[in-house]
Amino acid sequence: MLRPERMSKVSVTGSKGVMPTVIETVYELNLLHLSDYDGSWQGFDNGDPIEGAEDASGRLVTVRALESTLDLDDDDVDSDPDVSAIGSDWEGRLERVRTRINELDDRRSEIREELRQVDEKIDRVAPFAELGIDLDLLTGYESVDVLVGEGAVAPVETALENDDDVRAYETFTGGDVVAVVAAPVEGVDTDGLIDDALVGVEFTRHGLPDTDHNPDAYVDELTGRKRELESDLEEIDAELAEIKREEGSFLLALEEKLTIEVQRAEAPLQFATTEHAFVSEGWIPSDGYETLVSALSNAVGDSVEIEELERAEYDRHGAHSHTEDVQKGAPAAVEEGEDEDAATEADDQQQKAVPDGGSTVTMDDEPPTIQDNPSAAKPFELLVQAVNRPKYSELDPTIFLFLTFPLFFGFMIGDVGYGIIYVAVGYYMYSQFDSPGISSLGGVAVWAGLFTILFGVVYGEIFGLHVLGEWVWGGNELFPLNKGLEPAAGDFALGWMVISVLAGILHLNIGYILDFYENLSHGVKDALFHSGSWILMLNGIWVWIFSAQARSSKPDFLFTTFTSDGPFPIGFSGFPEWGLVTIPLPVVGGFLLTAPLLVFLIGLVMLVISEPVEAVEALDVVVNVFSYTRMGAVLLAKAGMAFVVNLLFFGAYVDPDGGFHFLRTHEPSYVAEHYGEGADLVFGGLMHSGTAGLIGGLVILVLGHILVLVLGVTSAGLQAVRLEYVEFFNKFYEGGGENYEPFGHDRKHGETN
Predict the structure, then answer these.
(1) Over the stretch 400-443, which tens digit does the pLDDT of each residue have?
(2) Residue 310, SS3?
(3) By C-alpha distance, which of 43, 51, 57 is closest to 19?
(4) Under a CB-based contact definition with an 8 Å cutoff, are residues 30 and 743 in contact?
(5) How far is C-alpha 142 from the geometric centre of its chain's CA atoms?
(6) Residue 466 · residue 445 · CB < 8 Å
(7) How far apart, in Å, are the Cα atoms of 9 and each of 13, 207, 281, 324, 330?
(8) pLDDT averaged over the chain?
(9) What is residue 336's predicted lDDT score, i.e. its pLDDT?
(10) How far apart are CA 595 and CA 612, in angstroms?
(11) Residue 511 and residue 542: Cα distance in Å, rounded?
(12) Is the pLDDT reported for residue 186 higher than 50?
């Protein structure tokens, strides 16, 4: 669908006595997107949470904290309602689980802290143990300075040798650790003697550990303690894992129950209330209105008044408009047990929110968006939402993304082998992941892979080899189409650039036509001047570019790509001049105004009249189309990478007619034997270079094609997305819609009430 699902604004008004029942009923329906009351109605205030909301919220925080400690999520438990049943003594069970988990978590934190301290001590003592010198031999000297650290011995000794304050020194090494003992010349203090001498030398100093133990023995002692602590941690983790297995379903089911309680209890915060009455408004899919009326009627009878206030219109240039003033339902009845004076007071206060004409004043908010697309196009909603969710009042571009993104991607990669892998990976993501985002990306990958396979058949390629073309197309003169890397097929390389330009012209025309359709809501004139001007300029200038006028100054391949001798022989060699009148000009003598240029000028004048500021962007109709040449560039780049990988492994030669062939089934000697000196051997190929060459070539072949496969996503995928977002969306799409979030909850762990 090009439009989001139709939404209706509804109002539910009643006495406070039935409000909890109304909330529960609406919650179970999971249909109504509640509007927030902003406090602007005279006599009405935001409601207060229902009693028990604070307790439920506190318990919910506790449950979620326990789930975080256990690293618990939905994938860790059985969703069978019998397994996740809460039971009547859930509060006592929760307290027992909380106490048990918190004790273990506190003990785990203590052990981790002690383990951290032990690691620090080991780090400080280990260098001295490696050095093999008792710690008491490194301190207590007045006549010499002692320093221990890590660094190269030679620079240290050179620095000490060159220092005038050092009379004598000695170094001791053990592994990477160096101990330095230095004596100063007479009159120089020993403190900092070695530090001063080693300024500029790369040397990491180790502080002396605070212990009287032998370094080796102390390290052994600390290592033993570390093993004990790690064993204790493993026991605690195992116990927590057991709790997770036993109580995981209970905690998730309880979280769901408490979430529902909190959402229900806090719903009145979005209502407009008086002492005796409430008004709740929200948005609902129009076809769900009768379901809402039926459910509330069954729950509270005539105790509430339900009205369909409006059905939102699609109007991109302003707020939603009321297409009809619908009032359905009966006046709110007095709750049984209320006296007539209270009822009269409630009625009086409700009237303050009722304007002339009897329709309730509505809360000023825009309708939320429900994207309504066919199941095949659903995954592409993710790509639209990556920019912004469509407003309710504008077209949803998902279906166009579905039709063009895989087409662009397949055009740029065009290889059956790569396409099959994309489909396989995409299907795995789509079917094996619960995350909507990953699943949607998988669906996009499947469609992109299918079009990659389709274009691969057209190009006759599988992993960069043309064997598929030989099998499928045989001696067909038109197929397979060549990507243009071979010496004799250079015209195809330029031809794909022309194809890319034509794809851009078509794509941008669709964008401007959609903008024209959107602007029709403000009248044909507005659509013609705002959108029609761009359509005229785009097509006028590009028909002129492909016309015979000034052909000598235009690239020749524009006119030869589609001739009978060109790479795509459909018999087109350019448009005629379609000259209208010669406009005299100084110096050059005159300029022939042709029909395409006239169309462009008419569009430009219309744009200046309607949007003078945008006239400076008139040349975008040329620049934006040139952006699409990146598709042809990526096609050649990816084909070139696969070409090089295959060339390195198989080797190749060029026959006397200029035909390029990989040495898949022949040795390099075949070229000379079969063609003599009429053929050129490009490269002998690693597969023909002995066992070592074959093994190395296989590594290059596999890793090379994996690289092309990955870069296909990052280059072709990103370039296709860029063309959609920057060039296409900018013509008609703004985004910024609010997500439809109905008041309710999709249960995952059975009924918890």
Answers:
(1) 999 999 999 999 999 999 999 999 999 999 999 988 899 999 99
(2) strand
(3) 51
(4) yes
(5) 66
(6) no
(7) 13, 73, 7, 11, 17
(8) 85
(9) 41
(10) 24
(11) 16
(12) yes
| Three-class DSSP labels, 124-148 | HHHHHHHHCCCHHHHCCCCCCEEEE
Residues 391 and 734: their CA atoms lie apart, in Å, by: 8
Instruction: Identify residue 20 by its one-letter amino acid code.
Output: P
pLDDT in tens, 238-277: 999 999 998 988 899 899 899 999 999 999 999 999 989 9
In this structure, the number of other CB atoms found within 10 A of the CB of residue 252 comes to 21
For residue 691, the tally of other CB atoms under 10 A from its CB is: 7
Q: What angle do CA 457, 458, 460 make, to 5 degrees?
A: 60
Contact yes or no for 342/315 (Cβ under 8 A): no
- For residue 750, give the H/E element and its range: none
* 322, pLDDT greater than 50: no
DSSP 711-730: HIIIIIIHHHHHIIIIIIGG
Q: Side-chain half-sphere of 158: how many Cα atoms within 13 Å? A: 10
Q: What is the average pLDDT across 530-557?
A: 93
**What is the pLDDT, as a whole number, of residue 719?**
94
The structure tokens 């009978």 sit at 564
Write the DSSP assignment of 459-499 as a string of letters.
Answer: HT-BTTBTHHHHHHTTT-SS-SPP-S-SGGGHHHHHHHHHH
Query: Taking the chain, what is the end-to-end CA distance rounded to the nearest angstrom?
Result: 38
- The band of 391, judged by pLDDT with boundaries at 50, 70 and 90, is confident
pLDDT at 211: 66
The answer, yes or no, to whether residue 334 has pLDDT greater than 50, is no
* pLDDT given for residue 404 in this prediction: 96
Strands 277-285 and 272-273: antiparallel
Read off the pTM.
0.75
Q: How confident is the model at residue 299 (pLDDT cuts 50, 70, 90)?
A: very high
* Lowest-confidence segment of 215-219, 626-630, 687-691 by average pLDDT: 215-219
Q: What is the CA radius of gyration of the chain?
A: 39
Nearest one of 108, 110, 97, 106 to 66, comparing CA atoms: 97
Kindly give, in sequence order, each residue whose CB lies less than 8 Å from that of residue 752, ignoring residues fewer than 6 positions away: 86, 253, 254, 256, 257, 260
Q: Which of 511, 499, 559, 565 is nearest to 538 (CA)?
A: 511
Q: Tokens 């006599």 belong to which residue?
A: 43
Run of H or E including 223:
helix 215-266
Beta-bridged to residue 706, according to DSSP, are none
Q: What is the DSSP annotation of 311-361?
A: EB---TTSS--BS-----S-PPPPPTT--HHHHHHHHHHHHTT--TTSPPP
Burial class (CB in 10 A: 0-12, 13-18, 19+), 601: middle
**532, 625, 725, 741 from 540: Cα distances, Å:** 12, 13, 24, 46
* Confidence class for position 555, pLDDT limits 50, 70, 90: very high
Peptide bond between residue 20 and the one before it cis (omega within 30 degrees of 0):
no
Give the pair of three-digit tokens for residue 297: 């009627």
Contact assessment for residue 273 and residue 47, using Cβ atoms and an 8 Å cutoff: yes
What gap in Å lies between CA 682 and CA 221, rounded to an integer?
67
Structure tokens at 86: 């809460």
User: Can you tell me which residue has the tokens 């910024």?
Assistant: 736
Q: Mean pLDDT over residues 572-601, rounded?
A: 80
How far apart CA 425 and CA 442 sit, in angstroms, is: 7
Per-residue pLDDT band for 590 (boundaries 50, 70, 90) equals low
Cα–Cα distance, 9 to 363 (Å, whole number): 10
CA-CA distances (angstroms) from residue 491 to 104, 457, 565, 655?
A: 73, 20, 10, 19
Q: Give me the amino acid identity at 516.
A: F
Nearest CA to 575 out of 598, 588, 592, 558 is that of: 558
